[in-house]
């Protein structure tokens, strides 16, 4: 890179050159990003799809545009590889992007932003700008296709850099997981009227939540409110996973409370218990009457003959 083209006294240029050096000296298997030689403020990048998700094994290219005030203002991000989660050639809305400058911190870097972008991929889009909500099967198909070659975009210099990054990422990429029939059948069973049950945690917990909704309409309203809060916080970063986990716990507690209430309402006294109670009360009444009668006869002087008879 011809660093003499740029003003090293400029704070933004100085910071960017430091990040380039760090990116080259400490590469990652999960991402790679470098600026254009002719423009330090435009970076090409590629990230690896996060493990244990429908994106695993995929290689996704994109473009980063740094502002002249960097690092005091956030960059903008654009995906170039079809992925089913973000629109291509569209600036995406994330808490680390220029759509939310209030969240950006100058201590963050391109490396930090790429790590966050990988974490955002499996999250619920919740209608955010530049987001897509493809089915898992479609995203897996796109993950396989993304390995074939880098997308075609921009000038020959951009394309050359993208191809180099793609070769590097491909050498570090893990194979795309094969979808076994049993897993496919489980995912198909979780569909309702052709749509998958939306749950950021687990398909199994989705089924449990569905059962609770049928048993307890009041719990339904509570769960819907909690789900809405979690989806709104999905753009807050990796902490949204913790909120989602908390939602799963609250669902299990709600299920336990519901079952206890149902069991307590189901306990009804048996008819045999009622008859036993009636006979006991009748016997006690007779005993009281006999004692009162004996006391009356004794006090009246006629108790000798009658009491013996009794």
UniProtKB/TrEMBL annotation:
Residue intervals passing through the bilayer: 276-293
KW Aminoacyl-tRNA synthetase (keyword) present: no
SMART domains reported for this sequence: UBCc
The protein, known as: UBC core domain-containing protein
Cited InterPro entries: Ub_conjugating_enzyme, UBC, UBQ-conjugating_enzyme/RWD
Record's keyword annotation contains tRNA processing: no
Signal peptide: none
Keywords: Membrane, Transmembrane, Transmembrane helix
Gene3D superfamilies: Ubiquitin Conjugating Enzyme
Domain UBC core: 11-166
Source organism phylogeny: Eukaryota, Viridiplantae, Streptophyta, Embryophyta, Tracheophyta
Residue ranges with Polar residues bias: 176-191
Region (Disordered): 173-202
């Amino acid at each position: 890179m011809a660093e003499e083209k740029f003003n090293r006294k400029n704070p933004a240029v100085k910071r960017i050159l430091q990040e380039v050096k760090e990116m080259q000296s400490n590469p990652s298997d999960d991402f790679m990003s470098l600026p254009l030689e002719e423009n330090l403020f435009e970076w090409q990048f590629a990230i690896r799809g996060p493990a244990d998700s429908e994106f695993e094994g995929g290689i996704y290219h994109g473009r980063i545009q740094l502002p002249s005030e960097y690092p005091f203002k956030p960059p903008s991000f654009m995906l170039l590889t079809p992925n089913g989660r973000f629109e291509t050639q569209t600036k995406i809305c994330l808490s680390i992007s220029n759509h939310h400058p209030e969240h950006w911190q100058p201590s963050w870097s391109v490396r930090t932003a790429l790590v966050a972008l990988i974490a955002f991929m499996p999250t619920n889009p919740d209608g955010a700008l530049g987001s897509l909500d493809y089915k898992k099967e479609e995203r897996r198909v796109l993950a396989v296709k993304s390995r074939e070659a880098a997308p075609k975009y921009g000038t020959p210099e951009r394309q050359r850099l993208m191809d180099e990054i793609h070769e590097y990422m491909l050498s570090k990429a893990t194979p795309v997981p094969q979808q076994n029939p049993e897993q496919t059948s489980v995912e198909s069973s979780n569909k309702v009227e052709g749509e998958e049950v939306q749950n950021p945690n687990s398909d199994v917990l989705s089924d449990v939540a569905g059962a609770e909704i049928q048993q307890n309409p009041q719990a339904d309203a509570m769960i819907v409110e909690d789900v809405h809060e979690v989806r709104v916080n999905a753009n807050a970063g990796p902490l949204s996973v913790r909120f989602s986990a908390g939602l799963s716990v609250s669902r299990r507690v709600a299920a336990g409370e519901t079952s206890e209430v149902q069991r307590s309402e189901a306990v009804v006294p048996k008819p045999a218990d009622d008859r036993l109670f009636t006979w006991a009360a009748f016997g006690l009444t007779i005993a009281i009457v006999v004692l009162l009668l004996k006391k009356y006869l004794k006090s009246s002087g006629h108790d000798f003959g009658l009491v013996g008879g009794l």
